[in-house]
Amino acid sequence: MTLIVFGSINIDLVATAPRLPVAGETLLGGDFFKAPGGKGANQAVASARLGVPTYMVGRIGADSFGAELVHSLQESGVQTDNVFVDESVSSGVAMITVDVRGENQIIVIPGANGRVNQQDVERLSRLLPEARALLLQFEIPMSAVVAAAKVATEAGVTVILDPAPVQKDVPNELYSLVDIMTPNEVEAGQLVGFPVDGEESAKKAAEVLQQRGVKNAIVKLGAKGVVCATTKETFFIPAFPVHTVDTTAAGDAFNSGLAAALCEELPLRQAVVWGAAAGAMAATKSGAQPSLPDRLTFDTFVRERGVVSG
Question: Can you list the domains of the chain with their CATH numbers?
Answer without folding.
Answer: 2-20+29-300 (3.40.1190.20)
